[in-house]
Amino acid sequence: MVVLDYDHAAGSSPSHTFSDSPFFYDRSAANGSGQALFQNASNVQPHSNPHVSYYFPAGVGHYHYGERHPMKPARLTLTNGLVLAYGLHNHMQVYTPREATKDELEAFHDSDYVDFLSTVTPSTPPSPAFTRFNFADDCPVFDGMYDFCKSYAGASLAGARKLAAGQTDIAINWSGGLHHAKKCEASGFCYVNDIVLAIMELLRYHPRVLYIDIDIHHGDGVQEAFYNSNRVMTVSFHKYGNDFFPCTGNINEIGTSLGKHFCLNVPLQDGIDDAGYVSLFKSVMEPCITTFRPASIVLQCGADSLGLDRLGCFNLSIAAHGECVRFIKSFGLPLLVLGGGGYTIRNVARCWAYETSVLTGCQIPDTLPNTPYDAFFAPSYRLHEALQAGRVENQNSKASLEKIRVQILEQLRYLHGAPSVQMQEIPPDLAGGWLEEEMPGSGGKDADGSKTS
Q: Which domain of life is it from (predicted)?
């Protein structure tokens, strides 16, 4: 049984285990860390490094929701700038993916809804369709909206296909992760649910897919899409209560029909800190993975769970957010990593650049490299900016977090092991699958699709 270890994270000495006793060979100078034996051995290399693919749709950071809207696609340009400036692209295959086709979007979304997305413009007169499809202040109509949706959805689909084909171990698409969009409506700044589309693609080859969401908002669109399925387990860590959007994600929402107990929700309160969040995350996710035994994992890394986020109320540091990513990577399963929320864009870029380094296994300095966007990171110009300056009072007690952990583990007992799936001949792909899937980001172009000099 995994026990939450708050005292160690808070700075007190860690509890000793049986393997720390003198009867065992002391493998390291550090407390119990066998890896320390090889820290200074320059000739010792990892058995194998994961193959990482990085997807950045051309021009995806140039779209604009509106002057006062908190969603800023420009954060993707800042992120990509840091990734390139740190040289992380040298440790990945970088691709400029094609856009998703209309047929691919309609694999999940209703055709009437996709038709509306493809034809509506900022000058379209108001009509009942705006209300029907939930287009309002949160989900405005802006120039290039449909192209934006096709771009980020196409990148997630390309990553899923490469994972399913066994051609990569990790696929990254920071422009994706828009988890609120529903089958027939926009919601929470999200128009097309690229996560659902990617999971559906993975399910064509993989019997079980695990979806993990560390955005501060509940991943309601993904949960709803697979609420009746036992082939997808959804696990969401989020703020819940006080009418916080989207007002779903109670721990009692566990799925229905075949999907009963395959939906896990971890509702948290304001101000959770690094120690409580990371400890709870690890103690929940390890038994989830070992019990459900997924063939692949989709990880949504919404950065609005960081401290000082414009719309958030947690106290997480970039290091803690990245530790969750590192932990999931350590299981060695095919992994699709997506973006999501995040509204203080300088911190979003810092976070996703750092997590790109985690996924590629690279050590990067705390001092930020020079980019055309240096002004966004003034005055510190550091990667790990202190995000506790506007600290929110932590309303999550140790007892409440332990209660959540126990409830989640109790729910896992009902699974009785991973469900078996009868796999049949794989159906042919949509017509879009025969189009050119992706283009390398090198060879005369930067990862943002712009030509190099």
A: Eukaryota
Query: Would you please indicate which residues are annotated as catalytic (active-site) residues?
Result: 180
Q: For the whole model, what pTM was predicted?
A: 0.86
Q: What is the CA radius of gyration of the chain?
A: 22
CB-CB contact of 179 with 190 (8 Å)? yes
To the nearest 5 percent, what fractions of the chain are helix, strand and coil?
35, 10, 50
Q: Domains (ranges, CATH) in the chain?
A: 54-419+429-440 (3.40.800.20)
> Does the pLDDT of residue 181 top 80, yes or no?
yes
Q: Above pLDDT 90, what percent of the chain? A: 79
Binding-site residues, in ranges, read: 138, 188, 215, 217, 304, 343
Contact criterion met (CB below 8 Å) for 287 and 406: no
* DSSP output for 76-116: HHHHHHHHHHTTGGGGSEEEEEPPPPHHHHTTTS-HHHHHH
Binding residues for substrate: 138, 188, 343
Question: Are 98 and 154 in contact, with CB atoms under 8 Å apart?
Answer: yes
Q: pLDDT tens-digit profile of 393-424? A: 999 999 999 999 999 999 999 987 677 776 66
Strand partners, 439: 96
Q: What is the β-pairing status of strands 209-213 and 232-239?
A: parallel
Interhelix angle for 111-119 vs 145-164, to 10°? 130
Q: How many CB atoms lie within 10 A of CB 203?
A: 20
Q: Which residues carry a binding-site annotation for a divalent metal cation?
A: 215, 217, 304
Q: Which residues contact 408 (CB under 8 A, 6 or more apart)?
A: 251, 264, 266, 284, 288
CA dihedral 348, 354, 358, 360 (to 10 degrees): 100
Supply the DSSP symbol for 200: H
